[in-house]
Amino acid sequence: MNIPFQNTYARLPARFFTHQTAVPVKAPHLIRFNDALARDLGIVPGGADEIAAVLAGNLVAPGSEPLAQVYAGHQFGGFSPQLGDGRALLLGEVVDRAGERRDIQLKGSGPTPYSRMGDGRAWLGPVLREYVVSEAMHALGLPTTRALAAVATGEAVYREAGGLPGAILTRVAASHLRVGTFQYFAARRDLDGLRALYDYTVARHFPQVEGPAHLLAEVIRRQAKLVAGWMSVGFIHGVMNTDNTAISGETIDYGPCAFMDVFHPQTVFSSIDVQGRYSYDNQAHVIVWNMAQLATALVPLMPDQDEAIEDFTALVHAMPDQIETEWRRAFGRKIGIAKAGAADAPLIGDLLARMADNRADFTNTFRALLTGHARDQFLDPAAFDNWEAQWRARLKAEADPEAVMAMANPAFIPRNHRIEQMIEAAVSGDFAPFERLLKVLENPYQDQPEASDLARPPEPAEVVQNTFCGT
Ligand code: AMP
Ligand code: MG
Fold first, then answer.
1. 239 C-beta closer than 6 A to ligand 1
2. pLDDT tens digits for range 232-270
3. In terms of C-beta density within 10 A (0-12 exposed, 13-18 middle, 19 or more buried), how is residue 346 classed?
4. Ligand 1 centre from 17 Cα, in Å?
5. What positions does UniProt annotate as the active site of this protein (predicted)?
6. pTM of the full predicted structure?
7. Residue 47 CB neighbour total at 10 angstroms
8. Which of 230, 303, 352, 451 is the most buried (most CB within 10 A)?
């Protein structure tokens, strides 16, 4: 196996990370390798046993300088001055065929100095969940980390439920720079560290950026688009802590995330999110709060801090309008409006309110706008009929609403109950449902009649109420 590793992060000052090798596992076995992604990354795979050994961390690949990154973060609003890769290792970076630098990271590779009470491991369930959901997110067209491989460790991992099969995910990311990485150095008043981080971030992601205010504006722009994108596919991240908010604007850290079936704006899946801080609707507010934390961490970089606070505050205060614009554009496309203007927002909001009142399935309702069967999704179909008249009138001004909707309304999302069923099968050794989910979700905007069971909402007995942090 040849991975053309580079190690720019390892060249940062020593206090940015800890050199750390993976703790070898008993019997690494390759569950799945993402050949197409590997090709994009310029990786020459080799045999399954070698891939499993390298991506379980049993073999250190030539050129890799594995390390655990340190960061901080607000978790559910409370600040932890020191977190870090507690069960992950950055193996290094590769420059992909498009010229973009990408991190190659193992998740579940054993304890590090940042593990606190954790065992540094992951079990099969969350590994397969992240594999499927992150690849689905990519196919849906949203920025996200990717999954390169899943490897079984041949060891048991102990959780509340008892002994579970262990696994390691290989994650690919534009970088693992987080809001929390900036917070780490800012909280320690390590100005040199903060400067080095700023320079690294700009060189890696934002070469056109001139100054911290400009960087903040760019991250805000990307995050506004990302969160609106999540909402447009019914995605609930579930742990939007500042350590799980990537500077690159990618979706990162698939833990208790889930896609909604029945639409309700206050939906929460995560078992630990008792206050609904990261509910579907609140994502648009919390991301602004997270950007305010990034702004705070960037202030020390500025020569005139009072002026910086004023400028950065203005940028953060402008974010809700940006999210609203992105949201309107994304949902406008879902109802066939190519470039929705402010005047279209009430039409979108009205549909969503009726969907919530009528327990309509989020994905299937929008998809059915194309086929003319949307009213069947409503408890009271008349609630749709009243909206439809205004909608049809508005669509007269659109050139090709069907084409716009077909690209904006997926037929397939990774439904929670299917993920749970897939995990259950995998635990008993049957990976066919995992492979099938992956295959179907590669083309979420295509009708695939043979997979209609995967488009069906859960039966009452199949409904998954809670998801758990991927520990
Ligand atoms: P999360 O909110 O899932 O991103 O995790 C928060 C922190 O907990 C991160 O610093 C993780 O590295 C750490 N963590 C989560 N699970 C484990 C585990 N099983 N062992 C060690 N550290 C963990
Ligand atoms: Mg995390």
1. yes
2. 999 999 999 999 999 999 999 999 999 999 999 999 999
3. exposed
4. 16
5. 243
6. 0.98
7. 10
8. 230
